[in-house]
Amino acid sequence: MGFYKRLNYITDKEGDNDQTIFENIKILSVEYDKxxxxxxxxxxxxxxxxxxxxxxxxxxxxxxxxxxxNNWIDIHPKNVLLSSKETATITMEYILEDGMITxxxxxxxxxxxxxxxxENSMRITDIxxxxxxxx
Length: 135
Known about the structure:
InterPro entries: Ig-like_fold. It comes from Anaerobranca californiensis DSM 14826. This is DUF4352 domain-containing protein. By secondary structure, the protein is mainly β. The protein has a single domain, classed as Sandwich (Immunoglobulin-like). Helices cover 0% and strands 56% of the residues. The strands form two sheets. The chain has a five-stranded antiparallel β-sheet, with no helix packed on it. Strand 4 and strand 5 form a beta hairpin. It is elongated.
């Protein structure tokens, strides 16, 4: 269910005349453990991330859901430490609250260079899933 739309960001960090380019860090795929969920169930998103750089990277994986009425639900991000040339699978979970709007939910998974709410954090790459699951 759903389809992917990749948005890749190549960003420069300012400071000390040093530039870091994140073009070698990618979200390869996202899968949900099933297509239909019910209130009180745990939605499990399985995210595969690849670090093709020569450096270890300390990243943050953000996750937001878009309900059928176009309201965003932000799920607490996870800190991800990837070694050079490492591919990792990360599980993001969210328990559906009773009374949530029924219908199709879309999602955005994004990698950030620091905690996403921080003023200077930069989005490195993300992937959008249109109609990823139903309630």
